Amino acid sequence: MSGTVSDGPGSGGDLLGVRDGALLVVGDVVTDVIARHQGPLASGTDTAAAVRTVPGGAGANVACWAAHRGCAEVRLLGRVGEDAAAWHERELTASGVLPCLVVDPQAPTGTVICLVDTGAAAERTFLTDSGASLLLDPGDWSDALLDGVAWLHLSGYLLFSEPSRALVRVALTSARARGVPVSLDPASAGFLVELGIDRFLASVEGVDVLLPSRDEACLLTGLPDAEDAAAKLSRHVPLVVAKQGSDGALVARSGAVSAHVPAVPATPRDTTGAGDAFTGAFLAALLTGAGPEEAAREGCRAGASAVELVGGRPPTPG
Q1: Superkingdom of the source (predicted)?
Q2: Rounded CA gap, 48 and 180, in Å?
Q3: 20 to 30 Å CA-CA from 225: which of 46, 138, 146, 280?
């Protein structure tokens, strides 16, 4: 492949039906520092903001939303530093997730500064220090992690460092050997540009479900139209669900868009983690027997809930 998805046929396989087992998410666990400000930042001086520190990370957020939306058992493999390991474990457990956190003896827990403009779109900009989160490597993987697992989800952030890219290859091979379906969320259009489209597409060979944003789908295909991009990606990956924000979601299989799911109206406060909420709810619905279109509807509902909250996680029970 050279730069974009080819037009050749994709693999098939029916992913539907109730699946008896856990969802295993492998991905990033980070600390989010969210600064909500009004209007443009004032260069060289102060800008008033409401600042909160909350648990985050795309992989961890997906796991929490999947548990929140009814997935019976959700496990998470991630890597954190000693500085915040106990806090993150408590927060994940409180959200109904079974954490399997590797504690890095040297690197600190990843930190993301989320700058959120409190205007109508509540758009956010990330400053990312991945820290320990992208130091997961094949040594952190064990085939036993898939015992009792019905679905494996990989955070796309894992593809943005060589150690965690190697882990992705090992996890994919292990899942394929067991017949466990695998989904992946590309995670970041900015990092995709740095990684390179060819390397990304080679890395996702064998993935069953791809959940890109509109920008990511267009970037991966070189096509300006999201519907065309989703259709083209579905020749490479059996099922593509392209998240469109306020325009809902597209479901594509076998080179064609099969459904356009409308968004659920919401009043945004913070769009951080909205895509993660969609993915978590989508996977929870699939695992309880929903088809892709209905699962995408659940994803849109969760995304609408997420943008009305501050931070990327659902409220914890109690």
Answers
A1: Bacteria
A2: 48
A3: 280
Residue 55: pLDDT over 60? yes
Least confident of 59-63, 98-102, 160-164, 248-252: 160-164
Q: Is the dihedral of CA 95, 155, 173, 165 positive or negative?
A: negative
Structure-token pair, residue 114: 């989320």
Beta strand 149-155 with 74-81 is: unpaired
Report the predicted TM-score, pTM, of the whole model to 2 decimal places: 0.91
SS3 237: coil
Tell me whether residue 238 is in a domain.
Answer: no
- Read off the CATH number of the domain in which 67 is found: 3.40.1190.20
Q: Which residues are catalytic?
A: 276
DSSP secondary structure, 123-153, as one string: -EEEEEE-GGGGG--GGG--GGGGTTEEEEE
- Output the CA angle 65-71-17, nearest 5 degrees: 125
- Residue pair 34/161 in contact by the 8 Å Cβ criterion: no
Instruction: Please give the Cα distance from 238 to 184 (Å, whole number).
Output: 12
Q: Does residue 262 belong to any structural domain of this protein?
A: no
Cα–Cα dist 153/207, whole Å: 9
Q: Is residue 283 part of a domain?
A: yes
- The string of pLDDT tens digits covering residues 87-116 is 999 999 999 999 999 999 999 999 999 898
Range of the domain at 180: 22-37+50-200+268-307
- What residue has token string 């989010």? 32
Q: Which segments of the chain are extended strands (E)?
A: 22-26, 30-37, 49-56, 74-81, 97-104, 110-117, 124-129, 149-155, 182-185, 209-210, 239-243, 249-253, 256-261
Q: Transcribe 74-85 into DSSP letters.
A: EEEEEEEETTTH
Query: Domain total for the chain?
Result: 1
pLDDT band with cut points at 50, 70 and 90 for residue 10: very low
Residue 6 has pLDDT above 50, yes or no: no
Give the pLDDT mean for 301-305.
Answer: 96
When mean pLDDT is compared across 39-53, 58-72, 111-125, the lowest value belongs to 111-125
